Amino acid sequence: MKRLAMNMTLAVAALTVAAGTVSAQTMKAEIPFAFRVGKQVMQPGEYRVNVRYTNAGSQLLYVATREGNRTVVLSPAYRKDAPKDWTAAGLPKLSFACGEGPCTIERVWTGDGDALNFYTPRGKNGEPRIAEIILRPDRAD
Prior knowledge:
By secondary structure, the protein is an alpha+beta fold. It has one domain (about 20-135). It has 2 helices and 13 strands. Strands 3, 4, 8, 9, 10, 11 and 12 form a 7-stranded mixed beta sheet that branches. It is globular.
């Protein structure tokens, strides 16, 4: 029985390490409108945003309220080069597709590498309006 308990403990520890993430720099965004992250609707305000790399090499977007009392994790649909005007400016950005209902996170770029892109619902009238927010380093880290 002790052997089984030890093996289970080691298995749980291994899974915990495998599921861990390596955190990147946290950025802040002042978002002046309600927006959707996955199935959650977030209210206007200041948010902490960061992209974390999992041990498996995939990336996840973390969006948290400034107070840290609400965090939503979103997995990107695909990675693609950031828009040329974003890379030319060198400023990390978060863009939203705004159509019918709350805006939805469409893309995030942290200032290097590829932009992470997320699927967004399309409205009845075709292409949504795009809103862009510049991300700033979060001094709270």
